[in-house]
Amino acid sequence: MASQASLLLQKQLKDLCKNPVDGFSAGLVDENNIFEWSVTIIGPPDTLYEGGFFNAIMSFPSNYPNSPPTVKFTSEIWHPNVYPDGRVCISILHPPGDDPNGYELASERWMPVHTVESIVLSIISMLSSPNDESPANVEAAKEWRDRRDEFKKKVSRCVRRSQEML
Question: Tens digit of pLDDT for each residue in 126-137?
């Protein structure tokens, strides 16, 4: 199983190196471990995150693509769909099949057709339009809804800090 996952991840890495995608860069954390990727997401234009450089670690399970990776920001980020510890919470990273809580359709959850590229593009889309209906960070979601100016200040601080880390 792990060798199949490893071959698929090697192919996806090669494809991304040959055809880089606007908005992010990706590579291995350690050349000897295809299951841990380092990703830098560039804050999307015309969003509060514009100009930011947000680092994350993508960890793939040995049965990838049957199960989703986990994605965790290592840069500070303030967002309703990112847990305070940096873990990203979006539907396509949830295990495949029916949602035990009934919030998501099976078609919105993980499917083996997803690639590193489609995952990161979904995260970029999440930055552009937060889902405050089922937040990972309740405080950020409340601010997003009720105190947008406070929310904007916190995001601006994260963007500034991400630029200082370069």
Answer: 999 999 888 999
CA distance 86 to 74: 6
CA distance 87 to 90: 10
Asked whether the beta carbons of 127 and 44 are under 8 A apart, the reply is yes
What is the predicted pLDDT for the residue at 134? 84
> Which residue range forms the structural domain that includes residue 52?
4-164
| pLDDT on residue 1 | 60
User: Is 89 among the catalytic positions?
Assistant: yes
Q: How many domains does the chain have?
A: 1
Query: What does the DSSP 8-state code read for residue 21?
Result: -
Which candidate in 58, 89, 123, 124 is catalytic? 89
* pTM of the predicted protein model: 0.94
